[in-house]
Design brief:
Layout: H1 2-15, H2 25-31, H3 33-46, H4 50-60, E1 73-74, E2 78-79, H5 94-104, H6 114-132, H7 139-148, H8 160-189
Antiparallel strand pairs: 1-2
Helix pairs in contact: 2-3, 2-8, 3-6, 4-8, 7-8
Length: about 200
Amino acid sequence: MKKLLLLIFFLISACSSIPKNTADGCSIFSERYLWYKHAKKTERKWGTPIYIQLAIIKMESDFDWLAKPKRQKIFKVIPYKRPSSSFGYSQAVKGTWKQYKQETGNKFATRTRFKDSVDFIGWYTNKTEKLLKISKKDAFKQYIAYHEGWGNYKNYKSNQKVILLAKKVQNQSNKYKKQLNRCSNSLNRKKYIIF
């Protein structure tokens, strides 16, 4: 029984391992072609460009499906609680994830599935555009709203840490955009997956 559980664990972790080069969109999708299909579907459904979806995930979890915030420490040694309930590729918190599932009807969505994570990002950026009038192509402001939440967005100018993070997301999204322009034809032609 232990061997079977160990085998299942290795199969799951092999399927969900982090891509080798998370800074290159073409490399990510050459390793995970189904991810491209899911990101493309999100772009069609919500209007959120693939390069922005990737840039948000890169910043939030660096494509680690089990990513969580580090635990706080008591006396700098004893592990304590985590600062938030963020989890998975998108680092969505429990409350916002629950809202997403209710509003989209995607009741079986899980934060550890790439398909659901990019759909969540599409839903979130779409709501940001409606609520705050921020274009889905504006990586800088979209990320600030994503990180801070819709209610706290207006206070970001005094938060230098968030501004620096948003600039990194903007730079990364520009890189992903250039990279995907290079390989989008081959990605769109690829229709079959050989196992």
